[in-house]
Design a protein that fits this description.
264 residues; alpha+beta; Lipocalin; 2 domains; eight-stranded antiparallel barrel; 3 helices; 16% helix; disordered N terminus
Amino acid sequence: MKLHTAALCGGLTWALGIAAPAAQSPRPDPGEWTIDYAVAGGIAFNLHALRVTRQGDLTATDRRLRMDVAGRASEELLAKLNAFVGTARDAKKAPPMPDAIGTSLSIAVQGRQRDVEPTREITVALESAWDDAVRHALLGSWTQSGWTLCNPSVQMAAETIDTPIDVLTFRDNGTFEVTWRGGGARTSASPNVTIPDYTGRYTLTPPLGAIQFSVPPPVPAPRDFAGDGAFHIAGRELTLTRVWLGTSKVPRRPEICDLTFSRK
């Protein structure tokens, strides 16, 4: 007589009085949700925030750094947040502390919002998503739309204003390209291809709003090049502070501290 293994195991479980493990029921779907994450406080009341919806819409802001960008959340982040919504615990009440910097996390589901306790995993994921959103917002092509003098009371003569940058392109491989208005070179290929005036590399530190441009040798850096500074992105506008991407035609660098670019 042959005994099936499943039947034998079931019989032994019953005979020994061991309860069979109960089947786990799937977690109910939380429905549509919106998560708001913020780090706020300090003497200057800094506000660093991220909002993510279940549909994948994402906005990343930082008042101190003048960042305000929109993007899309990754599938990995959405999966983590969707699981977190169903298990999040209510936030613990903390006594108010003047000028203290605190972290808050809230979840809105079907019009009902509650403050929850952030886990380390979720905090790391949201900070990473904020960083990625800012990095992605920089990519693509920009055209110079303005500048700000270091000393606003100074008047610039026409002959001291340099040629504006027609195309500033950032690529996700860490390279950038600069083409001044009327500059660059055109190939005879079909379709015509514009070769930029020069190329280089850039690195970002989004939490600090820092950017660094470099022109690796053997290509010489443009005249008056200054690559270390800050960047701010708000919607379709990019501002570079203390950065000078080279002097094209005027005798020397104008006393300009901010370069403003619009999405091309």
